[in-house]
Structure formats: structure tokens, C-alpha cells
Design goal:
Elements lengths: L19 H14 L1 H9 L3 E7 L4 E9 L5 E8 L4 H22 L4 E8 L2 H4 L2 H12 L5 E4 L6 H8 L19 H20 L8 E5 L3 H12 L3 E5 L3 H11 L2 E2 L12 E4 L8 H4 L6 E2 L10 H10 L3 E2 L2 H4 L2 H9 L5 H9 L1 H15 L3 H17 L6
Parallel strand pairs: 3-4, 3-5, 6-7, 6-9, 7-8, 9-10, 10-11
Antiparallel strand pairs: 1-2, 2-4
Helix pairs in contact: 1-2, 2-3, 3-16, 5-6, 7-8, 7-13, 7-14, 7-15, 13-14, 15-16
């Protein structure tokens, strides 16, 4: 399938945004008048699609952030949000992160994301997923979906029954299968690059690392760290996963109320986002924050500056965890795991270069990463139209 074909009717955009102050002023006014359009302006999104189907119980939101570099791609998160506003903010932030992630990774994809609202253990069904696939198909390839929290490769197979715009398919269907080994490897090499800056060597032997979240990515990361003889502390809501990490990799189990009281070298958040916030930063004692979670900073500007002032080296999450999107990108062109891993290896250099840029320009690392992404999008945007 031709996932990168452009529509003849696609409008031309000369810029990805107006001037920052213009966007801020317009967004503030719009947010007060209309919380949905206002938030789209705030994050500079192209499109939001709200999906509803009473028969299957489907309630979903698809966010397309930016398509200058190519069709937007990002996973579908199936989560029992407290309310629809929480879901909206999450899908907007996540889709924006995907734009920056692909841009920094040097791949030709834009940023998108989808969320399905509800408890997947209670409402997930073949009918619901297939109905969701039909909604994806109406976008005509502007958004390509993949795995995220609450969905798996089997779910992607079901969605694929209704649309070709699916990635993260099983190997048996020509896909890349589970992307978590590639994602985890990217986190690992990014952590090594961060260690080189903080300690003068990229060896992680003897470094005290707290891994918060032992999903597929977190567990693969623990394997890498254990092989390098890092001193591991772990936490996950699943006691079974914690037990595996303790028995197989010699990790120490930590209770959630003690996590941020530890004296550690590296904090690796690998579950949901916003764990770097006012409360945790008041306690956190580490030299490096480097993990797989998305949107680790509760407030990018506020907490990105606080970690810098505290002397903590923050490896920007959308750089660190870009192995997942890299893996999916190679799936779109005939998957070969070796190609994906070779590209993920470059996350080491990308992390190192961002750290050096931040030092030279005396800015937080998140800002250096954002600039690199924005510069690539702006440059490519001058020579091509959006998808």
C-alpha cells in the first residue's frame, strides 16, 4: 500500500505555526471560548476526530498534530480516563510528542495519536475494535494507528480487518511484531549517552537505577541494565512482574511510597507520564532522568527548567523512546529487524548531540530537542505540502 501518497486536494501550508506569541494569544482567547478548538490552537494541531458508536460502546478521539514530514503515525491508547477532558488533553499531548519524536529520529512521519475511552478489560471487543478501524479508514491514510497502552498486536490484526492504515502487526502478517525490544534498546543507549555526560563514561556498571514500570519495554530495559551490572530497584503495579525482575535480574522491589526517597543515580520512568512533577522533584535524588514513558514532565516548561536548576540531566522522553516509532517506520517499507535496531543505535548520538546543544546554548535539554525537531519540520515544510 502507498502510505506516503499525497492527496491532490491537500492544501499547501508554508509554515507549521504562526509566531509563538500569536499562537499563545489566539489560543488563550479560543480556550476561554471553546475548550476544544482552544486546545488545538495551543498545541497547533491540524485535526481532531471524535468517534462514537452506541452499539459497540466505542468512544474515541483521534488527534492529527502535524503531517509535514509524512502521514501521522502513533499508537492507540485504550484507557479508563476519569473524564473526557482528561482523554482530550492526553491525546493532544501524545500526538504532539509523536511529531517531535519522528522529526528528531529522522524518519518521514508526522505525529498522531488515538485514545479509546473505557476499561479495556470490560468493554474491549472485536466489534468495538473493528468499528474503530472503520473510523481510522475514513481518514484515508492521514493517520496510521499502532499499539499503545491497553492494546496489543492481536488488536491490531482485528483493526486491520477494516483498514490498511495499521502498523505494529504480527510478524506472521509481514509486520514487525512487538516493538518493545527496539524501544528498550533505544532507552538503554540513550541512558549510556547521558551517563557519558554525567559521569565521564557511558558504563552503567555499579550505577543505581530505579526503573518505574515493568511493562514490555521496562522489562527489556531491566535485562540490558542487569547484563551491564547496574544496581537495580524496580516498581510496578503488577507484583508478578516485580517478582520476575527480582528473581531473574537481581533487582530490589520498592514500594510506591518509597520510590522517590531513594538515593539513586538514574531514574527511569517507564509507565504513564507526568511522574516528574512538583511533588517528586522535591524528593528526587538522582543525576539523570532517562526512561521510556511519554510526557514525563508534568509541565514541560516549568519542570524542564526545575530539573536543569537542580543539576539533573533530563534526556527528553520523545528522543529516548523513539525506538518504537523507528521500528514501526521500517515495517511500512518491508520489515527487517536489523535495520530497525541499527537506526535505534543512533539514539545514542542523538541524545549526546542534544545534551551538547543544551550546554552550548545554555538552555534546558527539552528545549534543545524541541528546536532540533522544529528546525527539521520547518526546513522540510518549505519544500513540500502537508500530507
Amino acid at each position: 500500500m502507498k502510505l506516503f501518497a499525497h492527496s491532490k486536494n491537500t492544501p499547501t501550508f508554508d509554515r507549521i505555526a504562526t509566531k509563538p506569541m500569536e499562537v499563545k494569544d489566539v489560543a488563550s482567547t479560543a480556550l476561554a471560548q471553546n475548550p476544544v478548538i482552544g486546545r488545538m490552537l495551543e498545541y497547533n494541531h491540524e485535526q481532531l476526530v471524535f468517534c462514537n458508536d452506541n452499539e459497540t460502546g466505542l468512544k474515541a478521539i483521534v488527534a492529527v498534530h502535524n503531517t509535514i514530514l509524512g502521514p501521522s503515525l502513533g499508537g492507540t491508547r485504550f484507557w479508563n480516563y476519569n473524564n473526557e477532558t482528561e482523554a482530550l488533553i492526553d491525546v493532544l499531548r501524545l500526538s504532539r510528542g509523536m511529531t517531535y519524536k519522528s522529526a528528531v529520529a529522522g524518519i518521514n512521519l508526522g505525529g498522531g495519536k488515538a485514545v479509546i475511552i473505557g476499561d479495556p478489560k470490560k468493554i474491549k471487543s472485536e466489534a468495538l475494535l473493528r468499528r474503530f478501524g472503520k473510523f481510522i479508514n475514513t481518514l484515508g491514510g492521514k493517520y496510521i494507528t499502532a499499539e499503545d497502552v491497553g492494546v496489543n498486536t492481536r488488536d491490531m490484526e482485528i483493526i486491520h480487518n477494516e483498514t490498511e492504515f495499521v502498523a505494529g502487526l504480527p510478524v506472521s502478517m509481514g509486520g514487525g511484531g512487538d516493538p518493545s525490544p527496539v524501544t528498550a534498546y533505544g532507552v538503554y543507549v540513550s541512558m549510556k549517552a547521558s551517563a557519558k555526560e554525567a559521569y565521564g563514561t557511558d558504563s552503567l556498571a555499579g550505577k543505581k537505577v530505579l526503573v518505574q514500570g515493568l511493562g514490555n519495554v521496562g522489562m527489556h530495559l531491566v535485562e540490558h541494565l542487569a547484563k551491564e551490572k547496574a544496581i537495580l530497584s524496580v516498581y510496578d503495579i503488577s507484583e508478578e512482574r516485580v517478582k520476575i525482575a527480582v528473581e531473574k535480574h537481581g533487582a530490589k522491589s520498592i514500594s510506591p511510597d518509597k520510590m522517590f526517597d531513594l538515593d539513586i543515580d538514574i531514574y527511569a520512568p517507564c509507565a504513564l507520564g507526568a511522574t516528574v512533577n512538583d511533588d517528586t522533584l522535591a524528593k528526587l535524588k538522582c543525576s539523570i532522568i532517562c526512561g521510556a514513558a511519554n510526557n514525563q514532565l508534568a509541565d514541560e516548561k516549568v519542570h524542564g527548567e526545575i530539573v536543569t536548576k537542580k543539576g539533573i540531566l533530563y534526556a527528553p522522553d520523545f528522543v529516548v523512546n523513539s525506538g518504537g516509532i523507528i521500528n514501526v517506520y521500517y515495517e511500512l517499507d518491508g520489515y527487517v529487524r536489523e535495520r530497525a535496531m541499527a537506526h535505534a543505535e543512533k539514539i545514542y548520538d542523538t541524545t549526546w548531540n542534544i545534551i551538547q546543544t543544551a550546554k552550548t546554548e545554555k538552555i534546558p535539554t527539552y528545549m534543545a530537542a524541541n528546536r532540533i525537531a522544529e528546525q527539521r519540520i520547518e526546513a522540510i515544510g518549505k519544500i513540500k505540502v502537508r500530507f
